[in-house]
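Record pair follows.
FIRST:
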Amino acid sequence: MRKQRIALSTTHIIMLSFLGVILLGSILLALPISAADGKGVSYTDALFTATTATCVTGLVTLPTVTTWSVFGQVVILILIQVGGLGVITVMSAFMVFLHRKMGLGDRFLIQDAFNLNSLSGLASFIKRVFWGTLLIEGIGAVLYMAVFIPEYGLKGIWISVFNAVSAFCNAGIDIIAEDSLCRYVTHPMINFVTCALIVAAGIGYIVWWDIIRVMKDRRMRRWKFLTLHSKIALSATAVLIVGGALLIFLFEYNNPQTIGDFSFWDKIQFSLFQSITTRTAGFATIPQEHLSNGSVIVSCLLMFIGGSPVGTAGGVKTVTIVVLFAAAFAAVRNKNETNLFHRRISPAVVRRSLAVVCMYTIIIFGSTLLLAGQTDASLPDLFYETISATATVGLTRGITPILNTFGKLVITAAMYLGRCGPISLAVAFNIRRVRPDVIKNPIEEISVG
């Protein structure tokens, strides 16, 4: 009997590549050499740490600074860098620099990994992503060194490099202290550099190149010459950062557990940092369990939305949310077409945006339901945890360190599914061939809303 070959789609390959890196990382982290005490950690904790690093989330069951040896920290940093850029991107970059020709299959992999619309210029795109990432991370590391070297000596160099890569990749893991960046809540340099790295990566690579393209041509230095994608991503990012910071500022202004006793400028610093870090970075300058209920709701919304497409950020993405809101307003105004910035949005894009939000919601609610049966934590804390995991943010209200084995596996799965993308998950399990709808069902009107 003839054996059938299993043909893997690009989606399958991308998901399996992430899984392979996670499993390899978990094996390395489970080795005694990776632990600071030389005894090793449980495989569950090693798997959780490898997943949170590769999926650039930042939730940790064990303190990074005290649990892992230098070898373990190097493994975590490599996982963060590979996870932030994407496994396919790293592999493709090596092919490009080794002057190996990229086949059609390789091009499709890169296209799907970055959700691009064209197969042209992919080798150049990979080069720019690789060198652009190293350049910005390098600048961030040098700026961090101005603070960390005077404070930690030569160790400050390693801390600066680790923090720069983690911030740019939106991982939120640090090797400074067990309470993240809380000791630097009012430090202007740390706040500025961290926020700049988060935003730079969060707006997405294709927005970078679009801005550079417009700035290079003196005749085109105008907003209207940017692509529709860039306009949506930049506008949404600005609104979310400013709007989120303003709401958090108002909700926390008199909160004695957070910034109630801070100066006016320090309150602004914290509010901006919280608004930016919740959009998938995961660094904390204030314990999240001390936030007011209003700030918790705002933070959950910002985590759910996340950054922009084709970057290191997670969440459903800014463009997705803007498209859905535009489609909703179009429906309310009884219009058949969705328009943004005088451009028409394809119905296929609207359907895909709806699918992304629905799938993310299912993962979040499913994870929360599973955790609720295993812990006595409050519902807001559980939602905060699962949204943070699925959107690959990494902020917690004290739930992560007290999770049992089942809870750790639930959050591990949520981080993996959130990083791979709900649409990828749906496609991966849809093994049937796509056939044109030759026979269509009759239409019948229903009532909604």
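SECOND:
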Amino acid sequence: MNRKGTGFSLLMSIIMATFLAAGNVMAMDSDSTRLLLSRNAEFNKEILRVSENVYTAVGYAVSPVSMIVGPQGIVIVDAGLDVASSREIRADFRRIVDKPVKAVIFTHGHPDHTHGASAFMDSTDVQVWAREGFPHEQYTLESAGILIQKKRGKKQAGFMLSPEQRINNGIAKAFWPDRKGGIWGADHKIGPSHIFNSERQKINIAGLDLELVAATGETHDGLYLWYPAEHVVFAGDNFYKSWPNLYALRGTPYRDIRGWANVIDMIMQEGAVSLVGGHTRPIIGKDEVNQTLANYRDAILFLFDKTVEGINKGMTPNQLVDYVVLPEKYKNLDYLRPYYGNPEWAIRAIFSGYLGWFDGNATNLFPLSDAQEAQRIVKLAGSEDALADLIVGAINEKDYQWAAMLCDYLLAVDPKNKTAMLRKADALTALAQDKLTTTARNYYLSSAIELRKRASALASE
């Protein structure tokens, strides 16, 4: 495009982009932002006494680490994200009771629950328990040579963002792991020494009678730990105070959503007085635990059953998102708000998990390529300049989703269109402002930073 003033406005946009990419952001004043800011209280750093002999450390990193005190030592449930924060937890646990660690139990194989394990290796004979298939998700992807989820995971987590942009991660405080400690090196990764490979297994460690229960939900290597003496259940990531991450933006094998709801029902049947989730603070009190788990289970099952109902009516994923609406009684519960996962993504995941990529519309059997479709949209608009005007109009009307989509058409025709990059970045930043789901906010804002950097690099060529 060759229009008067375009060069100057582009230069000013790039200067603003550099300012934003450096971590300075416009004030984000929205109901979603205010709700997320108030949620930070959930992640205050402290050790909570869950029962007579159970303590849970929250707010040190992104996932709770629990200690069960036994006559002969202690058992650690999940080990945190990095060695530095887990060493701090170990030191604070030692101030409560100075007994040796006898075992570490991983509820599943995600790094935020396992990478701090070396901080709890008080001796070479510490038992490390995990379920058979550990770590299923990472192995499944990496064994196929799929590595893009790591890059997408950084955008989902918001590692590129400033503290002002990130606020929190919905179910955890905004945390940047201490990479200087070599936590990703082989010398710090602790693998299981004991494998649990049945539906339920009773074990005795440190004089404690514990039960490991297979719990396929968020992961296929998931388990929950039942401590019957004090009626405490450690649910892992099958429960935390948010709409569950039934589909992760970074990409995962299909998560068994119906199975996930069944696991919540199993946990409920234990009759727990205290519930320690994989993130957020524990829930204490039998009635509150029962009510929370019942609502959690029923909301997931409602979404699953309603999605299947729509599928059997011949609906496409886009139609299903409009068709499946959660009842108000679930939407108004704080622990089912979409802070981390999002119901719309779960609906799409159910469809693709059972029926694959084809949405049932014959038009989409062999669709146009992105570039072919974009060329036709440009022709329909009249020209690239006319399409650019539509983008400006959409932004002015605060129709940011449409603006981002129109930018994609221009970028499909001209991948080096700097103005389209910057306008898409503006649209994504605006979309992030009103989004409660933190993984979506992080992904929007991280993508906007990338676009601004690309436009700045092209402008300097």
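COMMENT: Confidence is low (pLDDT under 50) at residues 1-27, 181-187.
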